[in-house]
Every structure is written in C-alpha cells, then in structure tokens.
Specification:
By secondary structure, the chain is α/β, with parallel strands linked by helices. The protein is 29% helix and 10% strand. A six-stranded parallel β-sheet has the order 4-3-2-1-5-6. α4 links the parallel β5 and β6. α1 crosses α3, α4 packs across α6 and α5 runs antiparallel to α6. The two termini are 23 Å apart.
Length: 242
C-alpha cells in the first residue's frame, strides 16, 4: 500500500470530492465521512455508530472496521491511553497496522471547533475530541506520537488542510503525495517516551480505558505528552527509530 487518504468530518473535507482517485491506493473514512464520496474503501466507526448514519449498500471492496479490528490494532501501538481516544487517531493506527502505507494524507481531521461556525461537513455535530477525557489532554501531542510511530515504520503523515489544526503534520497538496517522505524525528526522545509508557503500564487491552480512568495520573500523561512533542521536532535526527 502506497498512499492512503484519511477523511474526517470537518467542513473542509468536502474538497476531497474533487480529488482524482488515480494515485490513491485506499480511502479510509471515519464515522460520517463515508458520505463524502462513494468510492471509499474502509469505514472506521464504533459499534454504537447509529444505524441511520451507516451506509446501506456496500460494494464488494468496501469494509466497515469496528472494535474487533481496531482495538487490537491500536493495542499494537501501545493502546488508547497513549495513542488518543478519538476515532481519527484510532482509524490512523488501524490503517498503519492493517494497510502499512508509505503516505497517509488527512483532510477533515483538524479537530478545531469554532463556536460560531459550522463544525462538521454535514452541519453541527458533537465535537468528540473536546470531551473531558484523560486521553485527549493534548491533541497536538497525540498527533506527534502518531507521526513518530508512522515515521518509525517508514510512513509519512501529511495534512491536506489549509485551516487551523491540532494535527502537527506537515502541510501538503494532493500533487505532493507521491514524493512525500517521513518527517525526521528525535529518536532518543521517542525511546524515552516509549520507555516511560512501559513503566507507567497504562494499558487496557479491552480498549474500554474509561472504565479504569481513576488509575491514570494526569500529571504523568502530561509529562509523557511533552516527550512526544519533543520527539516530533525535526533537526539533526534520524528518520526512523532504531
């Protein structure tokens, strides 16, 4: 798998309707984003995603990815507490695990919700990432972790949005995707962050981390988030973790 397009539900995702399918090896949609264009390949959503918001007729190549597939995938990258509890991050770790892409390009995943404007492409929806949740204290840090994990397996993450974003991925256009390379990362900081995660042991194999939230120290999570932000800083670093 070479280039994967990741579509969320932000208002700017509608621009993806004009993207040529040629050159895109897979289109992964998150929750309602399957409605943006009909040629999507994967819909990643939780089991409680309402039936009236799901696609009715799937083509032979379309698949719906639910917890039985995405929980083990996210656990393979450390689990929900460390990786982040939004469907955008969950879908990303599933794609890294299942599709092994070289490039993942995002649109509609900025996770910025101005009060006075439309929040989603279909209207105003619940801003899931703004809920009070131990896994979402720093969305930029969670995106930094994701970018480091992707770079470690040779995958570049880019943001196709030109809007304000909580994703820290480099910005790019669709035409740039074939030539994108993983951003350099601070390998030493990444190793420190992974070691700290192992020491903390905040792993919930079921994925239902909210049932154990009282055992997670938010100060420790904040310190871990700072390490991941430092790991994502480019410079005289290596492009992959050894």
């Amino acid at each position: 798998m070479s280039i994967v397009l990741m579509l969320g539900s932000g208002p700017n995702v509608l621009a993806a309707r004009d993207f040529a399918r040629a050159g895109l090896d897979a289109i992964v949609t998150i929750n309602n984003a399957w409605a943006v264009r009909p040629d999507w390949d994967y819909l990643v959503c939780p089991e409680d995603f309402p039936a009236d918001r799901r696609p009715v007729d799937l083509t032979a190549q379309q698949r719906v990815i639910e917890a039985q597939a995405f929980v083990p995938a996210q656990n393979a990258y450390g689990g929900f507490v460390y990786a982040g509890g939004t469907m955008a991050f969950t879908a990303s770790y599933w794609a890294l695990h299942a599709l092994r892409p070289k490039v993942m390009a995002y649109l509609g995943c900025d996770m910025v919700y101005p009060a006075a404007t439309q929040t989603h492409f279909y209207g105003n929806g619940a801003p899931d990432p703004l809920r009070k949740d131990v896994t979402l204290r720093s969305l930029p840090a969670k995106s930094a972790r994701l970018m480091c994990m992707a770079a470690a397996q040779g995958c570049a993450l880019v943001n196709l949005s030109g809007d304000k974003s909580r994703l820290i991925f480099p910005r790019a256009g669709v035409a740039d995707l074939p030539g994108m390379a993983p951003r350099t990362i601070n390998v030493d900081r990444m190793k420190l962050a992974l070691q700290r995660e192992d020491a903390l042991g905040y792993v919930v194999p079921s994925g239902r981390y909210w049932e154990s939230s009282d055992v997670f120290d938010t100060a420790e999570i904040d310190a871990l988030d700072r390490l991941w932000l430092q790991a994502a800083v480019s410079g005289n670093c290596q492009s992959k973790a050894a």
